[in-house]
Specification:
20% strand; single chain; 290 residues
Length: 290
């Protein structure tokens, strides 16, 4: 029966994909906007600091720059960028979630020259003129974007010499936790109402080759991780439901079966032991000049 249920879930996922019935990450991020900083941003602050140190701060002080941040979220990078830019430069923070950007605006709006745009990141780029962006950064967002189209638009909108910085979770991130989540879902086909579309890069080399524009000079390209152990099951469940790490997965679950999903996770984590389910974000960072 176990194998049969997994097969049924796989078939259902394929059918949903063919019909274009994908989960909405926007909806999941809308729900966690108020807790995102407490859980996700706090847990990955060291990674954010690592990324911020690689940004070209002296160059960003130059006048009349057009700077774009995709998947700006609640502002872990936005506020620092906005403080660094000259008064006549413009920073545009784009995110698909209005609630996430509202948190961002609350921290950043006192700084002049910061625009907030609610919408799809790649579609925002499509609407921009060619050779119009001096610097573009994206932390924790390219996994939700179609990489070929993203690369095409980055190639088109970035000016010659423009800076590009990308940080993203890579394949294998949170695999200890994800395996439990997938086990619960695949063993009960009833839970799934939408397909999940998530494209984590393999590693930093993948980002450099498949997302960074051809011909750009890669300055930094490396893989790292952030790990911690949580002592109790309820803290792990809170991380799953309040940090955004399960965005896409949670919206894929039938609303009336959500509590069954959470209980299934609780049972499995208790059985394994929460200390045996470490929270390990494996991520990649790439910076380049076009």
């Amino acid at each position: 029966m176990l194998i049969l249920n997994k097969a049924r879930t796989a078939i259902k996922h394929v059918a949903l994909s063919v019909r274009g019935q994908y989960s909405d990450v926007r909806d999941d991020y809308q729900k966690v906007a108020g807790t995102y900083d407490e859980y996700y941003s706090h847990n990955l602050e060291a990674a954010a600091q690592q990324f911020r140190r690689l940004l070209p701060w002296e160059e960003l002080k130059r006048p009349n720059l057009n700077v774009v941040e995709l998947a700006a979220g609640t502002g872990a990078i936005t506020k620092t960028l906005s403080e660094a830019l000259s008064a006549d430069s413009v920073l545009t923070a784009v995110d698909i979630s209005e609630a996430m950007l509202a948190e961002n605006r609350r921290k950043t709006e006192s700084h002049r020259g910061t625009n907030f745009v609610v919408g799809d990141a790649v579609e925002y780029l499509v609407q921009q003129p060619a050779d119009s962006v001096d610097a573009l950064v994206c932390a924790w967002g390219v996994c939700y974007m179609p990489h070929p189209k993203l690369k095409k638009e980055l190639t088109r909108v970035l000016k010659p010499g423009a800076f590009l910085g990308i940080m993203e979770n890579r394949k294998g991130t949170l695999k200890e936790l994800e395996s439990i989540l997938l086990d619960v879902i695949t063993n009960d086909p009833r839970l799934l109402r939408k397909a999940v579309r998530l494209e984590l890069p393999k590693d930093s080399a993948y980002i450099a080759q498949r997302i960074v524009p051809d011909g750009a000079r890669v300055a930094e390209s490396f893989d790292s991780e952030s790990a911690r152990t949580v002592a109790d099951t309820e803290s792990i469940l809170a991380y799953v439901t309040k940090s955004g790490v399960a965005s896409g997965y949670l919206d894929a679950i039938a609303p009336d079966l959500y509590e069954e999903l959470i209980e299934g996770l609780r049972i499995r984590i208790d059985a394994i032991g929460p200390r045996n389910v470490p929270i390990v974000h494996r991520y990649s960072i790439v910076t380049a000049n076009v």
